[in-house]
């Protein structure tokens, strides 16, 4: 970063995509580079720094630079074709026989991959309630555990893991700490500054924020041998994001601070009002003082408590499903973090073995008027 930009805030840098101006057209919006191959110099070198489209691309580099800035990532950032591609690349960089400890409550697709496919790679995986540092410490095996993977806030129960505490436990045992921060975003939490080694995002969600891109991202604290292996895995497996998707993602990150602030404010408002609703048995949201992880979240979530919450209904599973069927403004759909508010009965999606209660509805708060969002939920809840 040039000295003229070094004093700019992250919000300003993101808003201007690091201040880049196209040198040819002077456009303030970065162009989309779609070339798959590049001219060699006369001595067969590549002085431009680009060789082929599978491992690298100029548009992707620019989006990665924005994310690395937001995450304070010394090693930089890597964009992948999906969140799952990003997450599994970290596990694939381990060696057969390595021991992994992961959050018991986490994104269901990755949990399923760890329980099925990871063993085919020779990994040994144990799940722990990582929001309880004593339980995490008991699960970690010094000298054998090579990776601790936590998700905080955890989807869809929104438990909070102490990132600094988990990092201390992992490092003491000789392991790395990776944090799935998809439901927090760099606006809310920056895990690398709290001691994590790698932070992962399903960039499809709030980083992009418009429900029109499937993407994943990793950011690293240190450009060490392990990070180099992750870089190589993306290169060799062709898991890089496409240039058009990278362009859309960069567009989304330019407004991240505005969107995340508005979504977080509305989520807090809804959590407070729903916590006293007669048809709601429990609200799961770390912003509420009664949430068991509230104090930790207040300490490490510098941008507020997030845009995700869940509610459990007094009428049980049937009432939850009926309520989701009655909403009009909220949309019944999978995913989270977009500008539109989404509602979902997660147990139906995750199926047998899910830790998600059957009476739970997951809410992803968008940027609509919060009064409209509450009224729509209230009307849907009343018959339940």
Automatic annotation (TrEMBL):
Domain of life: Bacteria
Alphabetic keyword roster: Aminotransferase, Pyridoxal phosphate, Transferase
Cofactor(s) required, per the database record: pyridoxal 5'-phosphate
GO molecular function: transaminase activity
InterPro entries: Cys/Met-Metab_PyrdxlP-dep_enz, PyrdxlP-dep_Trfase, PyrdxlP-dep_Trfase_major, PyrdxlP-dep_Trfase_small
Family note: Belongs to the trans-sulfuration enzymes family.
Protein name per Swiss-Prot or TrEMBL: Aminotransferase class V-fold PLP-dependent enzyme
Organism in which the protein naturally occurs: Microvirga terricola
